[in-house]
Specification:
single chain, 274 residues, Four Helix Bundle (Hemerythrin (Met), subunit A), two-stranded antiparallel sheet, 2 strands, 68% helix, globular
Length: 274
């Protein structure tokens, strides 16, 4: 005979779900990305306080940190989709919003609505450029030679280009009448280059081996540039920015040369003429 009140045995509690520990190699690149974001936001604070030199240095620091986080992630094999998304968000703030606000507080506020619209277009262009970059991550694999080129001016390089008037001013270039209009025009040009389809040199192209006879001159050149950056930072940054802007023409020519060579070598291509 079964008991009227059988003993109650509660169901076993489900096992506690524990989060897996995250390896340090995944955290370190994201920490560097957050430092770049902090540098960009701090640049805005310096611009509000009228400390233009500190704001420009903060943007440069953000660009350096942005160049390091990806390389650290690849070196430690800590790349992730989360890190890529975080990097894009940090780039939008540090290289889209921060430079636009610095230019507005410095010069473009004189032009009122026109200056503010230029700042908005710069921020919009940077957002569209970064969104396109994220989409291209999932795109089919490109040929190896195309990895040496970026589509449009990359975000850090675009920030350095649009900050060129600020760097020239800090380098000692005297202000003149109509400077605000020139800064407005230059901001629009940089925004257009950022979202353009122009092929530009990418840092990924530096993986190619360097001939032995060029190693020593390259090392000497790097040491000279570093020394100039320490002694004359804004003059050196201005010269490097102008050189990069001029290299866009060379990158387009080289990209077209590679494209023609690929078409000729493809099956059914015209091939070289006899």
């Amino acid at each position: 005979m079964e008991p009227i009140f059988p003993p109650f045995e509660p169901e076993p509690a489900p096992p506690q779900r524990r989060f897996r520990p995250i390896p340090l190699r995944l955290l370190l690149p994201n920490i560097v990305t957050l430092l770049a974001l902090a540098a960009g936001l701090t640049a805005v604070r310096f611009a509000i306080e009228g400390r233009l030199e500190h704001a420009a240095i903060a943007i440069i620091a953000a660009a350096v940190l942005d160049g390091l986080d990806g390389r650290i992630a690849r070196y430690l094999k800590g790349t992730s989709r989360f890190g890529a998304e975080l990097d894009s968000l940090a780039d939008f703030v540090s290289f889209g919003c921060a430079p636009a606000l610095i230019l507005y507080f410095w010069q473009l506020h004189v032009l009122k609505t026109a200056g503010w619209l230029a700042c908005l277009l710069l921020a919009f262009a940077m957002a569209l450029r970064l969104a396109r970059f994220n989409v291209m991550i999932d795109a089919p694999e490109r040929p190896a030679w195309q990895k040496a080129f970026a589509v449009g001016v990359p975000a850090p390089a675009g920030a350095m280009m649009v900050m060129l008037p600020v760097h020239l001013n800090l380098a000692g270039l005297p202000q003149f009448a109509g400077e605000s209009l020139i800064v407005l025009f230059w901001t629009l040009v940089c925004a257009a280059l950022t979202i353009s389809r122009l092929p530009t040199f990418s840092g990924k192209g530096l993986k190619s081996p360097v001939p032995r006879e060029r190693v020593l001159p390259i090392l000497v050149g790097v040491v000279v540039i570093l020394a100039l950056l320490v002694s004359h930072p804004f003059e050196t940054i201005s010269v490097l920015t102008v050189i990069y802007a001029a290299s866009i023409v060379l990158s387009v020519q080289r990209y077209r040369r590679h494209t023609r060579a690929e078409i000729q070598s493809a099956p059914g291509g015209s091939g070289p003429s006899a």
